[in-house]
Each structure stands twice: as structure tokens, then as C-alpha cells.
Amino acid sequence: MKKAPIFAVILILLMIGIGAYSLPNRDTNPQAMPTQPIESRARALSEPEIQSMLFEIDKSFSGGTLEHRKQLARTLNEAYFKTKSVDLRRKISNTLTRLLKSEADTSVARAIAMSHSRLYFDDNTLANLKDAYERKVLSFDDYYGELAHVFPGAPPEVREGIIRDIAASHNRYAVDIVASNINGDNKMVLSEYETTELQKFLRTNEPIFSGTADAYGQFEAIRYEQWILAGANLAKSTGSTSAEQFMVDKLLDSKTDPRALVAIATSPFMNSLPPEQRNSGSWALIQSKAQDFINKNPANPSLQLAGQQIVLNSK
Predict the structure, then answer these.
(1) Rounded mean pLDDT of 128-147?
(2) 68: which residues sit within 8 A by CB, 6+ positions away?
(3) Which residue in 98, 200, 250, 262 could disulfide with 290, CB within 3.0 to 4.6 Å?
(4) CB 125 within 8 A of CB 116
(5) 239 Cβ neighbours under 8 A, 6+ residues apart
(6) Long-range contact pairs involving 202-207 (C-beta distance under 8 Å, separation at least 24)
(7) Residue 225, C-beta contacts closer than 8 angstroms, at least 6 positions apart
(8) Tens digits of per-residue pLDDT, 196-226?
């Protein structure tokens, strides 16, 4: 039985890092340390208790310390996912919206904005993000990163505008999140316009391998794998080409950085291919070219480790 590739382990760590960048989120509710009775109660709340909590927060929020107010914002996010009541979820959304508008401290306002943006998309989502960005509560990366997080859950009549804004931003952090969303949500149905805009966004924001020509970083390799897989998935959805052909054409293009070939040759994607497919045709050529580049740079330990991984994958 093969050992899990180090690349896969690093991918998990990177995804954890991306998620932690702007916790709380929709998929993993924040596990915040309780500092006040309200927070401790948010672990297991009935609907009447959530109602009571909202009332108490309205009364006490402005008088709390900075850290206490941040914690209360995260607690509201957590309570949102502790109930299935549409009415209570709307009240929590409205409470966070009201607190965001009245909060003067930038760090607290950022915690509130992030806590709200990771709720399910509603009428407050875009208005809150725009308000926080205009007030410089959210940074450039924060804002476009959050737009990239929320667009899959937005209704079609709103989603096109969000995608247009993301595409115009050329924000590289948003590229990572968009790619992750495309690769992870097979049920997302995009319009022709949305697909075209996202393809253009990815194409014009190809991840760059930094440093000298022989420098090789695992995080950059992971970003490249996610980026090319997203492009392949979009191309496949249009019927213009297969996902495999899209990747092969890009990787064997003479203008492609050879480190991209190393990234894919050592990736979880490559390791997921059946051995007979992985070790023949275009994929075998990609691995061979990656090894050629590795062999030309014997002093780079990261590349040498990648070379060992390619050999291991080929068995």
C-alpha cells in the first residue's frame, strides 16, 4: 500500500490555512473559546435561548471590550448554524448587520463582517461587504476573497454581477478561492456568461512560481494544481474539450513554466489516475519532462524530493 504523498498532506494544510484566513465559515463553525456566559451557552441552544441571546447582545454589545465584541460576533455566526429556523436566522443576520453599521472599531467591525459573510447568502450579504470595504474595515484581499466565497450561494440574478466584480479585480487570493469552489462543487450550474467570465479570470491570473528559475515551493505547486483543474473543469462544462486535453495542452505548451509540470506530476490529481493512464501517452511525457527539469537542478532539495515522488507514483 502506497504512503500518502507529501503533496497531499501539504494540500490539506493549505486548505486549512485558506479556511482559517477568514473564519468563521459556512462549513466549519468557529470553535471559539467562551469568555462570557452568552458564548458558553451557544454550544447547545434551543430557539428560545437564541431569542434570549439576541436580546442580551442588543443590550450589552456596545459596552463590551474589543475582544468580547469580536467573540459575540462569532457566537452569533455559530448560533445561526445551531438552528434551522428561517426566522431566527434572519434575526441573526439582521443583528449582525445592525452591529456592523454601528461599530466604530475596525478590528471588531471586521470580525462582524466576516461572521456575517459566512452565513448563507441573503439580502444583507453584498450590502454588508460593500459597506465594510468602503469603510476600510475589509482589505482588498478580504473583500474579493469574501466575494469569491459567497458567489456559489448567490441567486443567479445576483451571481453574474459578483463574478463580474471578481473578474475585474484580478485578486490572486480570490483566484485560489474561485478555483477551490469550482473544483469542489460539482452541483454548481453556471450560465454561459458566468463560465466565460470565470475562464477569463483564471486565464489572466495564472499562478506564478516565484524566486529563481529553479526555485520550487509546495504551496505554489498546490495553487497551480487547483488553478489548472478549475480551468479544466470549466472547459469540460462547455463541451469545448475534455478536462484531460485542456490540462495536457497547457502543460505541454512551450511557454509553460517547467515547474508547473513538476507540480502536476507530483499532485494528488496525477496520483489519482489509474497506473496504466498515468504511465502512458501525454501523462508519461509530462512526467518525463518534469524529471528532466529536476535532473537539471540537482542542488534543489525540494525538486529532488519531487523527483522521488514522481518515481513513487509511477510504480
Answers:
(1) 97
(2) 35, 36
(3) 262
(4) yes
(5) none
(6) 202/175, 202/178, 202/227, 202/230, 202/231, 202/234, 203/231, 204/170, 205/170, 205/172, 205/175, 207/172, 207/175
(7) 11, 263, 264, 267, 268, 269
(8) 999 999 999 999 999 999 999 999 999 999 9
Query: Reduced to 3 states, what is the DSSP secondary structure of residue 59?
Result: helix
Contact (CB, 8 A) for 120 and 89 = yes
- Over residues 293-302, mean pLDDT: 95
Among 226, 124, 114, 238, smallest CA distance to 176 is for 226
CB count in 10 Å sphere of residue 135: 16
- Tens of pLDDT, residue by residue over 69-125, are 999 999 999 999 989 899 999 999 999 999 999 999 999 999 999 999 999 999 999
Q: d(Cα 102, Cα 95) in Å, to the nearest integer?
A: 11
- For residue 176, how far is the Cα from the chain centroid? 6
Whole-model pTM? Answer: 0.81
Cis peptide before 152 (omega within 30 of 0): no
Residue 294 grid coordinates: 529536476
